[in-house]
Design goal:
Blueprint (H helix, E strand, L loop, with lengths): L40 H4 L3 H4 L30 E8 L12 H6 L3 E3 L2 E3 L6 E4 L4 E4 L3 H4 L5 E8 L5 H10 L9 H9 L9 E4 L23 E3 L19 H18 L4 H23 L7 H7 L9 H13 L4 E7 L7 H25 L6 E7 L2 E2 L2 E2 L6 E2 L3 E6 L7 E3 L1 E2 L6 E3 L2 E2 H11 L9 E3 L2 E3 L15
Parallel strand pairs: 1-9, 1-10, 6-15, 6-18, 7-8, 7-9
Antiparallel strand pairs: 2-3, 3-12, 4-5, 6-14, 10-14, 11-13, 16-17, 19-20
C-alpha cells in the first residue's frame, strides 16, 4: 500500500471553473490548494436546509464567479461520470451469495472452534451467464445480469462492529468523523445539474453510523448528501407553507439582496455564500420535485421491470427507479440504503426476506442502464459493512470483516469477472486482498480522480478519502 503523506508542496484538487463542452476532462493540475474554511453542517444550518447543497447561481455570487458546484475537470480521462451505490446495512453474507463454498457442505455441522460449528449455505450455487460466474440462488435476478458484474471476492475491512465498519466503508475512517465518499466525489467533480443536489441518499432508516455516512464534515457544506425518505414527503418541509407560498419568491429575492450587501461589506465570507446556496437550492427543488418524483411518464414495462406499482413511493424498487431518474438528470452520486442484513440467527429466513425486496430492483437498474446506453458511464456499486462468518453457534452467522464480497458494474470495470478469492471456507483472503482503502482508490480512479491528489487542507494538514493508504485495483479495469 502507498505510504505517501501529502506534504506542504503536494498537489491539491481545488475548485475550478466549469469544464469545457464534452464532459470528460483531460489531465489538469492547477497546483493550488483549498483554504482552511472549516465548514460543517452544524456551523452552517444544522438541518435540511444545509443539506440541500446544489443550486442555480445564487444572487450573492457575482456574475464572474464560478458556481461552487459547477462541473470540474477530472485529473485524467474518466471512465465513469456518476455513481449509484447500494449499501446493505447490517452485513450481508458473502458465502451465501457471491462467494459460495462447496467445502462448507462437507464440513456442515462439524465443530469449527469452541461451541461454533461450520454452517453450509442453504442456497444452491451454479455458474451464471456466459461468463460462468458461480453464485447462489439467493439473488436470482442478479444472476441474470452476471455478465455485467465484477465481483471483488477478497474485500477486507478493519472492524467487526456495525458503527465503525459502516463509517469506514463510507469515509475511510473508523473512529473520527470525516467526509463521506459521496461528499468527496461531489467536491472533486461538482455536478452536471446545478439545479439539483450533487449528492443524494435514499435512506428509509438511518444506517448504524447515521448521517455521518453522507456528511460533508470539513468539506464545504453544499457537498453533504440530501436524504430522501421514501414516502409521501420524500424531502421533508420542501413544500412552501400555505399562507406564505404566494410571497415566497419576493421574500427570497429580498433575502438575496440583503445577503449580497451583507457579504460585500464583510469580504464575501464562504459560510454566508454556502448558506445562500442552500436556500436557492431548496427553492429550485421545489420547482423540480413534482416532475422528478412523478413516475407518470414511466411506461408499464419499466415499472414492471423494477417491480413498482403505480402509486408506490416507498419500495426499494421505487428507490432504484428514482436513482436512475436522478442519474439521468445529472446528479453525480446517489446512494440507496437497505436494512437490515444482521442475521445472527435464522440466516435463511432473514436473508431470503431481504433479498426478495432488493434483488429484482438492483438487477433491473443494471439492465435498464444498459438498455439506455448509460451503464458504461455509470458506476454501480454493491457494498456492505462486512461479511458473515462461515461458522456459528446456531443457524445464523456473525460479523466477519476478514473477508467479504462487493461488486461493481459498468463505469469502466470488467463484466462477468471475479477478482481475488477467499479460502475454501470463506474465512480469510487467499488471493489478491482488497482493503476498503483500495476500494475507495479504485472508485475515484474510475471517476478520473487520483486519490492521492484529491485532498482538502483542514486543521493544518491535507486530508483525503484514503488517508495515507490505498492502491487502485487495476486488474478489474476494462
Amino acid at each position: 500500500m502507498s505510504s505517501k503523506v501529502p506534504g506542504p508542496e503536494s498537489t491539491v484538487h481545488s475548485p475550478r471553473p466549469p469544464s469545457p463542452p464534452g464532459g470528460k476532462g483531460g489531465a489538469t493540475d492547477s497546483g493550488l490548494r483549498t483554504g482552511d474554511c472549516g465548514l460543517t453542517r452544524r456551523r452552517l444550518l444544522g438541518g435540511a436546509a444545509a443539506a440541500l447543497g446544489a443550486a442555480a447561481l445564487p444572487g450573492a455570487l457575482r456574475a464572474d464567479e464560478p458556481h461552487p458546484l459547477a462541473a470540474r475537470p477530472s485529473h485524467f480521462r474518466a471512465r465513469a461520470q456518476r455513481v449509484i451505490l447500494f449499501f446493505m446495512n447490517g452485513g450481508s453474507s458473502h458465502v451465501d451469495s457471491f462467494d459460495p463454498k462447496p467445502r462448507l457442505r462437507e464440513l456442515h455441522g462439524q465443530v469449527a472452534q469452541g461451541q461454533r460449528k461450520w454452517v453450509a449455505s442453504p442456497w444452491e450455487a451454479a455458474p451464471r451467464g456466459k461468463s460462468g460466474l458461480v453464485m447462489t440462488e439467493l439473488f436470482r435476478n442478479l444472476n441474470g445480469v452476471a455478465d455485467e458484474l465484477c465481483l471483488l471476492r477478497s474485500m477486507k475491512g478493519d472492524h467487526n462492529d456495525h458503527f465503525e465498519a459502516t463509517l469506514h466503508m463510507h469515509t475511510g475512517s473508523d473512529g473520527s468523523a470525516r467526509p463521506g465518499i459521496g461528499a468527496w466525489v461531489s467536491y472533486g467533480l461538482g455536478t452536471a445539474n446545478p439545479n439539483l443536489p450533487s449528492h443524494i441518499v435514499f435512506a428509509k432508516e438511518k444506517p448504524y453510523a447515521g448521517s455521518q455516512t453522507w456528511d460533508s464534515n470539513f468539506l464545504p457544506a453544499y457537498h453533504q448528501g440530501v436524504r430522501v425518505e421514501p414516502g409521501d414527503e420524500p424531502i421533508p418541509n420542501l413544500k412552501p407553507y400555505g399562507p406564505l407560498a404566494p410571497v415566497q419568491d419576493l421574500e427570497l429575492k429580498a433575502l438575496r439582496d440583503l445577503n449580497r450587501r451583507h457579504a460585500d461589506e464583510r469580504g464575501r465570507p464562504s459560510e454566508l455564500l454556502a448558506r445562500v446556496l442552500s436556500f436557492d437550492t431548496a427553492a429550485s427543488i421545489q420547482n423540480m420535485a413534482p416532475d422528478l418524483f412523478d413516475l407518470g411518464k414511466e411506461s408499464d414495462d419499466v415499472l414492471r421491470l423494477y417491480g413498482v406499482e403505480r402509486g408506490d413511493n416507498r419500495s426499494f424498487g421505487w428507490q432504484c427507479l428514482m436513482a436512475r431518474r436522478m442519474a439521468e438528470r445529472g446528479v453525480r452520486f446517489v446512494e440507496v440504503f437497505d436494512s437490515n442484513w444482521d442475521h445472527h440467527g435464522g440466516i435463511k429466513r432473514g436473508h431470503e426476506t431481504r433479498a426478495a425486496a432488493v434483488d429484482r430492483p438492483m438487477a433491473a437498474l443494471v439492465a435498464d442502464l444498459r438498455q439506455r446506453g448509460m451503464l458504461d458511464e455509470t458506476l454501480v456499486l454493491f457494498t456492505t459493512e462486512f461479511g458473515r462468518t462461515p461458522h456459528a453457534p446456531g443457524d445464523g452467522r456473525d460479523h466477519h470483516n476478514k473477508v467479504f464480497t462487493c461488486w461493481m458494474a459498468g463505469g469502466g470495470v470488467k463484466g462477468g469477472y471475479a477478482h481475488g478469492a477467499s479460502d475454501e471456507t470463506g474465512s480469510e483472503p487467499a488471493e489478491k486482498p482488497v482493503h476498503v482503502h483500495d476500494f475507495h482508490a479504485t472508485v475515484l480512479h474510475l471517476l478520473g480522480l487520483d486519490h492521492e491528489r484529491l485532498t482538502f487542507r483542514y486543521a493544518g494538514r491535507d486530508f483525503r478519502l484514503t488517508d495515507v493508504y490505498g492502491n487502485v485495483v487495476r486488474d478489474i479495469l476494462a
